[in-house]
UniProtKB/TrEMBL annotation:
Domain Solute-binding protein family per the UniProt entry, residue ranges: 127-546
Highest taxon above the source species: Bacteria
UniProt protein name: Peptide/nickel transport system substrate-binding protein
UniProt record, GO biological process: peptide transport
Any Pfam family: SBP_bac_5
Gene Ontology MF term list: peptide transmembrane transporter activity
């Protein structure tokens, strides 16, 4: 692998979904329409438009400098700040961003917490410098050397250096008490890597075997652990640095330091514990307060943020961000039509901006003074039905693992009726398969068994051995009992509930008895972690670039592979946990192992195509319909927001679009 300068894994062709180990996108990029690359490290680059003010920092910060409460701007910025190209025009300081969210901490991590060592470009086609201003890849993908941006400071003013990464790596993510199993991001070939400090601003990750996905994963969701544990703050809660830490834990009401450490905010920026005023971060905004029993999260600008606009004016433009937790989606919908928000980004699942709500929201655009923005979804299915192929009940396991059973139930679904009734005629019959925009698109994987054909459905169910029926016409299991199972669906997804209610009728017509088992998201995850569900429904991730790093529906290797969590646990524990999968699944896992250690993007793609061909053959799960593009809402006085953005968990929408350059003209 040749050495690079931080741009070494850029994508030279949008036809290719796997350059630099990630995905190209055929959808039109809002950024390409503006002719602006959005990010530079050259402070002298012209913006093409005069700034609206000569101020180089927010007036409130300038006042603090004048009062001697804050260092001058030149002492707060690094020598080479990241220069963010504004989308429409240079913004003005002031104002705030108010938005509704179902889970403020999780969404704060996307809207305001996307500052990793490296980052994705807005169109998801390049990996760009960020906290690391450059890097080299050596020894065939076994070594990754990062050169940190000098002069970056945490939000409390303390320097960010290699010591912070060394602490977070050695003492947090590789601490077996905190992480009994190291995060997979930092392992290759089943073995954890190591982090060497070269100097105060240079670190090197070293792995025994090539880690082909490392840079891609560092730019994606889940790469926050090393950037969310400032050593100067969290070392006081760690036994290596504080011999009295157990006494401190007991004093504060914790059973041990292991319980106290994450509760103090270390580790996950998606937890409420992290978003506390005393926890330093590296983001554009820091926590001001958590109010109303966690129902409102209020952020304020970070005076030490290390990015500027092209005129050298420190970002962010906005003074703050307020997350209001959604407790009732109907109420939130009414508030949205009334314009009580600044920006609701396109989501990849749930929320207010759904196909069902779009007509209501469209009618209120003028009165609510807002506009729609397009979301290019990476989701490839509205609803993926996953049978628990590792079910504890031997009879259900035998039935679910029979491919003819799954084929039969797929043919029994009237997808066109679901699309018309539930999704406002928006969609296309589709299995769990990459979208058409992806060059990984496979017609076989996407369209097989999608025809509504009850006669064919009955033939396959009979072929699966389910020929006996009871007096009500329901098919019997191998042990003679009625074949009945529950389908878990989360209450936050009303469209999925409606979908499964219709499917219940279709399956009854071919002799299958089910119950729609609704629950909140927390219980859903608790049940699947203990292998309890009979079957479940979830959104189809993995439709674009995320197919490489999140192949959950194609091969059972993640905790989100709902059809075989026990198999994925076996895979990720080297056989010490979960349930050993059958040989065909293990062969798939072996292919994915090759992808994970392959440093060559072209070879990665070849292997991924092979993996998808295998997924088509095994037909692990049943898809319903391909989603159309999603949408978001933005107030007409809220600016520098792209007309189109990718909606994906792995992309961390809207993080790569640089929310720090959003601004408001509201008075």
């Amino acid at each position: 692998m040749p050495a690079g300068t931080g741009m070494s894994r850029s994508f030279v062709s949008r036809r290719r979904i796997l350059q630099a180990g990630a995905g190209g996108l055929a959808a039109v990029s809002a950024w390409s329409l503006t002719g602006c690359d959005l990010l530079s490290t050259d402070p002298s680059k012209e913006s093409g438009e005069q700034a609206t003010t000569e101020e180089k920092e927010a007036p409130a910060l300038a006042a603090q400098v004048k009062a001697g409460k804050l260092p001058p701007l030149k002492d707060r910025l690094p020598a080479k700040p990241v220069v963010v190209q504004t989308l429409e025009r240079p913004g003005t300081y002031g104002g705030s961003w108010t938005l509704f969210e179902e889970n403020p901490p999780i969404n704060a991590a996307r809207e305001c917490g996307y500052d990793y060592l490296v980052r994705w470009s807005p169109d998801w086609t390049k990996i760009l410098p960020n906290l690391a201003e450059s890097w080299e890849i050596g020894n065939g993908g076994r070594e990754y050397t990062f050169h940190l941006r000098e002069g970056v400071r945490w939000s409390d003013g303390e320097p960010f250096t290699a010591d912070d990464l060394k602490f977070a790596f050695d003492d947090v993510v590789m601490n077996k008490e905190l992480f009994p199993v190291p995060p997979s991001l930092y392992t290759s070939g089943g073995k954890p890597g190591r982090l060497d400090k070269i100097d105060d601003h240079t670190v090197r990750f070293v792995f025994d075997t090539p880690h082909g996905l490392f840079l891609t994963l560092l730019a994606s969701a889940g790469a926050h652990e090393l950037l969310s544990a400032a050593k100067h703050h969290f070392s006081q809660f760690h036994p290596k640095y504080n011999p009295d830490v157990e006494a401190l834990a007991k004093k504060e009401g914790f059973a041990s330091w292991v319980e106290m450490f994450p509760a103090k905010g270390a580790g996950s920026i998606s937890s409420t514990d992290f978003w506390q005023p005393e926890v330093p971060n590296l983001f554009a905004w820091r926590t001001a307060r958590v109010a109303e029993q966690g129902q409102r999260l209020v952020l304020e600008r970070n005076p030490y943020y290390w990015k500027t606009d092209p005129d050298g004016r420190q970002l962010p433009y906005l003074d703050g961000v307020t997350f209001v937790a959604v407790t009732n989606l109907e109420t939130a919908l009414l508030q949205s039509t009334d314009g009580q928000f600044d920006l609701l980004v396109p989501t990849f699942t749930g929320g207010i901006c759904t196909v069902r709500n779009k007509p209501v929201l469209a009618r209120s655009r003028e009165s609510g003074d807002y506009r729609f923005i397009e979301g290019v979804s990476s989701s490839m299915n509205y609803a993926v039905i996953a049978f628990n192929l590792a079910h504890k009940d031997q009879n259900l396991r035998q039935v679910f693992q029979n491919k003819d059973f799954r084929i039969g139930l797929s043919h029994a679904i009237n997808r066109q009726e679901i699309i018309k009734t539930v999704f406002q005629r928006q969609g296309e019959p589709w299995q769990a398969a990459p979208r058409k925009e992806s060059d990984l698109y496979s017609e076989k994987l996407a369209k097989q068994y999608t025809a509504y054909d009850p006669a064919t459905a009955n033939e396959h169910l009979d072929k699966a051995g389910l020929t006996r029926r009871d007096s009500e016409g329901f098919r019997l299991r191998p042990d003679g009992k009625r074949l009945f199972f529950q389908v878990d669906v989360v209450t936050q997804e009303p469209n999925q509930i409606s979908t499964v209610e219709l499917i219940k009728g279709y399956w009854k017509a071919v002799g299958i008895d089910i119950n729609v088992n609704t629950m909140d998201r927390d219980l859903f995850y608790t049940r699947k972690a203990s292998y309890e569900p009979d079957a479940s429904v979830w959104t189809g991730d993995g439709g674009l670039a995320d197919a490489l790093i999140d192949p959950r529906w194609y091969v059972p290797v993640t905790s989100e592979s709902n059809y075989a969590i026990a198999w994925s646990d076996w895979y990720n524990s080297d056989g010490t946990a979960g349930q050993e999968p059958p040989e065909d699944a293990q062969r798939q896992m072996a292919i994915y192992d090759q992808i994970r250690v392959e440093p060559d993007p072209d070879k990665q793609r070849t292997l991924l195509v092979q993996l998808l061909e295998s997924a088509a053959e095994h037909f692990w799960v049943i898809g319903v319909a391909l989603p159309v593009g999603t949408f978001g809402l933005v107030k007409n006085d809220f600016h520098n927001v792209p007309k189109s953005m990718i909606a994906s968990y792995r992309y961390l929408t809207p993080g790569p679009t640089h929310p720090e350059q959003y601004f408001t003209s509201a008075t």
